[in-house]
Design goal:
The protein is an all-alpha fold and 100 residues long. It has one domain. Helix content is 82%, strand content 0%. It contains three helices and no strands. Helix 1 runs antiparallel to helix 2 and helix 2 runs antiparallel to helix 3. The chain is elongated and about 50 Å long.
Length: 100
Amino acid sequence: MIFWIAAFLYAIGLFFIFAGLYGLFHFNHFYSRILISSKVETVGFMAIMTAVIVEQGLSFFSLKVVLICLLVMVTNPLATHALVRSALKAELPLPEDRDG
């Protein structure tokens, strides 16, 4: 049973990663791409790491994986914010409004 739960979580993680790769090639603007890549990295990584924890059971190894996940959850949004802020300060143009 644990094997199937872990396999399902691996599949979810891989789905988000491949959907994000499609999004990176589909969108043509920096700001759209950075949004997609940050979400994919966080969600895909967390799903795969959760699968690793489920597969290995509760152990010292699982505690280390949880700490790595917490570190990624804190640093990924900060890094994305820093990239977007530097792009705005460098006056990288924003995408055009499609509705107007």
